Amino acid sequence: MTVENIIGKFSIEGKVASIKPLGEGFINDTFIVKTEGDAPDYILQRKNHIVFPDVPAMMDNIVRVTEHIKAKVADPMRETLTVVPATDGKYYFRDENGNYWAVCVFIPDSVTYDKADTLELARQGGIGIGRFQTLLADFTEPLAETIKGFHNIRFRFQQWDESLKADKAGRVKDLAEEISWIESRREKMLAFWELVENGTLPTRVTHNDTKLSNILFDKKTGKVLCAIDLDTAMSSTSLNDVGDALRSYTNTGAEDDPDLSKVSMDINIFQAYIDGYLSERRDTLTPVEIEYLAFSGLYITYEQVLRFLMDYIDGDTYYKIKSADHNLVRTRAQYKLLCSMEEQYPRMQEIVKNLAAAR
Ligand code: GN1
Ligand code: MG
Predict the structure, then answer these.
(1) pTM
(2) 218 forms bridges with which residues in the sheet?
(3) Residues 110-130: what's their mean pLDDT?
(4) 3-108: which CATH number, 3.10.580.10, 3.30.300.20, 3.30.200.20, 3.90.190.20?
(5) Which amino acids bring their CB within 6 angstroms of ligand 1?
């Protein structure tokens, strides 16, 4: 079935003018569907059902989360996604090969970025995720867990231990150094996760995939519009959203930079992001959440090192890759970022403390 046929299965307005691939998602395939005349444009996605084993439950999460947000914001068509149902009323269409497709409205005059080049962009991103969490603070129904143990490092270690044992691609023998990066921090990361498990850190509805390119900005005003890519919206600690954003925004290089001298954490971007985030969440975070804000960057960056390396060890089955060693290059670049965060950690904590106390 062609993408032209597939978009025809959805209740869209207008006549399709063109369908083109969009963006660089590592998991799903995304297309922009342009229509003729005044009708809205659309985003069509093939949802990866290997990564997301229950796409209908995931779409149900997304619809409930976006409807909850829509009921509260001034401009419901711009301040969150609008999911478009298929002609049979379902929020997905399953093609003859078993692939799942979903559609949402493209928000006009919006833009995404791959790199946080200005402090204001980072601040706006922090505001965006802070607002996302605030809008969902009273969302009480449970959400489906779309990927099991997504940011749960205890669960990730189970997968990790199994991967090392299975050594499916025969790569473990060449990775002693990289593996030691993971093992040497295992206890420290588990100790953090224990705070989530024993309730010291509360769980809330969180986004869980807050890298910069998953945030939409208004092209005209530069202000944040909303968080997109809601596939992983589910219950977790709000710190995961901050951590994943810090991993992405503060990096002076690319996520997969082969030139490690370019990779480090920009402390000013860190400060700007936390400033924006706290402007929305200062009064609703618990003291323990604030205490671990800086650590969240280290936690998620570490987890990302583990996930890229594990995928390399598994023979590249999860992330899309552009070269045979892409996951290893990503691993090394993210590890360099982690080291830079570790070096600057005392300063990060100081910044959080000052900003949390400021009004
Ligand atoms: C994936 O889906 P996308 O490309 O926004 C991944 C994130 C990783 C990120 C690394 C569902 O994000 O967890 O942090 O790549 N998403 C999933 O860039 O695994
Ligand atoms: Mg995603």
Answers:
(1) 0.96
(2) 110
(3) 97
(4) 3.30.200.20
(5) 25-27, 51, 209, 211, 214, 229, 231-232, 255, 304
